[in-house]
Automatic annotation (TrEMBL):
It comes from Perca flavescens. The keyword Transferase applies. One of its GO terms (molecular function) is ubiquitin-protein transferase activity. Signal peptide: none annotated. The keyword Transferase applies. Pfam families: HECT (PF00632). This is HECT domain-containing protein.
Amino acid sequence: MFQLVHRVSGALQRFREGMKTLGVLDAIRMHPDAFRPLFCHEPSPLTADVLEQLFEIRLSAVGRNKRRAEECVVAFWRDYLLDVEEQEGPLQLGGILAFATGANDIPPLGFSPLPSVVFLHELPLRQARHLPTANACINCLRLPVLKKFEDFKETMDFALKNTQGFGQE
């Protein structure tokens, strides 16, 4: 009770008095729904386009052989997001975001650092196949460089469905 109410009551009282000065507090009380977006964050539904725009794609330098393979994987990534949106909806798109960043929704102030996509060209020793990996501390998603969309989709689905997450499920 002390932490939530008594400790901040002075600051809240001064805030309320400041809002009364210009009649804002009365306007808020009369039209609470009109002011709700100013005071409460309501996450917008995730779409494939939103996720595509959110992630910064980090490609190799122009002219390198790796770049061509990465551009193919970028197309797979975009197609995968569209497939997930059509088949499973915003909930699974939130799962993709959580896999990469640890957050199911875009935070009110955005991400810092911005989410990024990098590419896994080499297969680690002791690993039988390429799987996507993520580092949620730096909001980085590492996508495997594969030649066929079906393989890409299979590895993405496997990784997302077999991830423990952050205790949110």
